[in-house]
Every structure is written in structure tokens, then in C-alpha cells.
Amino acid sequence: MQIPTLLSLAKASSLAYLSIDKIPASPYYESSQLQPLFQVVDPASQSGATVFLPDDDSSIVVACRGSANIKNFATNLRFNLEALVHQGFQDASLGLWSELEQKLFGVLVERDMKMRSVVFTGHSLGGATALLSSVHYIASSKNNANWPKPSIVSFGGPKLCNSPLARHIRNTALQNCNILHLVHDKDPILANNQQLWDALGFENVGLEIECDPNNPLVYDEKPDNPSFAWNILDHCYYLGVFVGPRLTI
């Protein structure tokens, strides 16, 4: 994906933290070139998603919200393996998909399936639910070859499953889908969880790409001298976009 597309998806992930009535007041609204269509929230997990339509009508963007309340943060801590996947993320994605499925497919039908792509994106917890929601999307649409295959882009998203399941999702469930995980070495959430993920045998499902937290830049390789990750706010900056909860949402 090109930098302008990644930047627009980072802004979508940021806007997903806002209630839909507050999105037009965001400084990212006009520059994102995205129009919010609808927003859903799973009552049980409080995981949310906002569905956007780009101004060029080229795709549908499903932006899953990251942690914005106590229930969301509790979801992150539910590390019990359920079918080899992080239980909290699995439960959140199932609840979110039950709220999202009918409305999302309704948009595809309404627009006569002319969208060239469906993109699932999100920051942090939202990156995990975006990935798992795309799996539910594939499963729900497998009998209709006309539905577009999804792409997945996460920003600071966690590793959520062990190696065998990651390979299954990558090579079978999401076969031929683009899956990108944008990370940076200043993100303390990623740095502090790496040891735990290694102990659990978790790995990324897709391609990990190093990016700049403060500028719209991506790198071919990780920096030779990585930064010391300590500032929690650095978890909320990707490509120069603030991607995180606001005091008022």
C-alpha cells in the first residue's frame, strides 16, 4: 500500500475512537477523505467499529476502535488461550461481528458490490479485532464469490495467536489477502509485551512494517539503534497521526 492510503487508514483508526456525531469536528476528518456511514458497538465487550466510505468510492473501510474504556482494557488482559488464540480478542471480535455483519453486507448490497476492496483497520486492540473480524467476514461471504476480499492494516496491534494458528489464518482463512502490521520501536506497549508473546509462542499473522511515529514514513528495515520505548503516549502516534482515546468521545 502507498503512504497516502496508509495515512488515510491511520486517520480512520483515529476517528473510530470518536462517536459518529463528533467525527466531523476532528482535524483528521477532511484530510482523511472518508465519510462515516455507521457505527456499531458490542454491548458485552464494548468493542466498536466505524464503517467509512472514501470520497472516491473505491472501497469500504471498517475501522475498529482500540481501547477506550475499562471493559476494553480488561479485554487486553484475558490471555487465556482459546483455540490457540487470545480469548479476550476472540470474544470481542465475535461480539463485534454480530453487530457489524448485517449492516456491512447491507452496504455492499446497496452499492451493488462495486467496491474494489474492503479494508479492516484499527489501532492496538482495534488492530486485533480488525484482523479477526476479517476472518469472520471471509467465513460469512465464502459462498458468494462476488464479495471483495479484505485487506487488513493494523497500527500498534498485538500478536494474538500462536504460530500454527497464525499460519492457518495467513495461508488458509485469509489466503491471498494483504495483511500489514505497522509498528515502531518507540511503542512501549509492543516493547513491554514482546517477552510475553514470545513465551506464549505468539506471532504476527501478516507482514510487520516499521514506520515512523511522527511522520508519514515507512522503512524497509528496523533501525540499527532502536529507541528506548518508555512514553505511553508513543503508543498513540503512528505516521504522525494521534491514534488513541480522547477525554471526550
UniProtKB/TrEMBL annotation:
CDD domains: Lipase_3. Pfam families: Lipase_3. Coiled coil: none annotated. SUPFAM superfamilies: alpha/beta-Hydrolases. Residues 61-189 form the Fungal lipase-type domain. This is Fungal lipase-type domain-containing protein.
